[in-house]
Amino acid sequence: MKLLDKFLLSTLKSIATQNIVSHYHNLQQHRTIVKVRLKWVKNRGLDHIIDVQTDLKAACLLKDAIVRSPVGYLTAKSLADSQKLLGLTVPTLRFIRRYPTLFEEFPHPKYQSLPCFKLTQIAKILHDQELKVFEDNHADLVERLSKVLMMTTNRMVALQSLHPLKWDLGLPDDFDKRFPDHFRIVKGTNGLACLKLVQWPDKYAVSELQKMNDDSSPPTGYREFKRGKAALEFPMSFPRGYGAQKKVKAWMDEFQKLPYISPYEDSRGIDPNSDLMEKRVVGVLHEFLSLTLYKKTKRNYLRSLRKELYLPDRFTRIFTRYPGIFYLSLKCKTTTVALREGYRRGRLVNAHPLTRHRDKFHHVMRTGLIYRSKGVDILPQLDNVLDEEENELTEEEEIELTDECDGTSDAETASDED
């Protein structure tokens, strides 16, 4: 009889607990937060950084293409249709001729009227140094790529979606074959070649936001939130005039109080139209951008991962809905999304070793652009290159507020063409 009583008591407690959790869950499964719509705010400092890095990325991609070429050079004909692929606003031939310290022009061995381009000795040295950086940061590369795959629903991503992200994630050309103990190439359900995580590493299942809070047992869901643990808050850097608005402050306070859902948790049970899901989407995008070297990437690159990251159809509205967290740039005829906290006074916070190496590459580029053919002779020793002064522009336009929740901002209606 006592055993029966204990069983019934245990069952009743279990049902009561489930009802409480279900009630809390239901409270979060609808939209209760009143939102305001903000006009897109231009940040000249971040735009300048994106402008500079667009050329840097294009030069690095050209360098890698020459290295991969079996003949060790590229012809002007092969560069003819690469402008859009490189993200350039000028023809590739004109671009590559700007940097004689990196790319040496010479006539084709057989067709003298056909210009060809190979790497200069300095560019080869820079490439060798880059390979050394990859070797020295082997563990970091594995962690970065693992975390990207861990955020996806099936722990795998199509290679055609990962290759455009190599520059942003700091991955070497052979990233898909370099770490066979951690990743393997498989055929996806859609027939595409995919990179799949071999084994789930628990030590990586901690988001950047959780690390920032320096908590050994950070809350990762509404169960911990219910027990009284404070929700994790996203750091915010408000545009001019933004933080002083009472409506915006009330909205952000309510948003921050929602429980934080780790991007490494399975969230498919959450109502896709709820505030809780919106905060989860913010968390996923925050974590993904945190994994990039420059805390930014193209919006369309994220769109190509929408299903894998379990994001809603119109998730890109998040970028302009939370301008204290994200910045949407329209520079260089494309749309780039950046994490505001990744930059302070025009400088990248906690620069990665690969970004510091790319600074050297940019120094050589800039010297070649200024001095043209004389640049090779006046270059200082690469090991003595000093850190370049970063642009510290932070000018922003004033924002405008409305009471509309789902309106479209100037940045949201911008062209999506990359």
UniProtKB/TrEMBL annotation:
Q: Which gene specifies this protein's sequence? A: LOC101251628
Domain PORR residue range list: 41-368
Q: Which GO terms describe its molecular function?
A: RNA binding
Q: Which organism is it from?
A: Solanum lycopersicum (Tomato)
Q: Which domain of life is it from?
A: Eukaryota
Q: Where is this region: Disordered?
A: 389-418
- Which InterPro entries does this one have? PORR_domain, PORR_fam
Stated name of the protein: PORR domain-containing protein
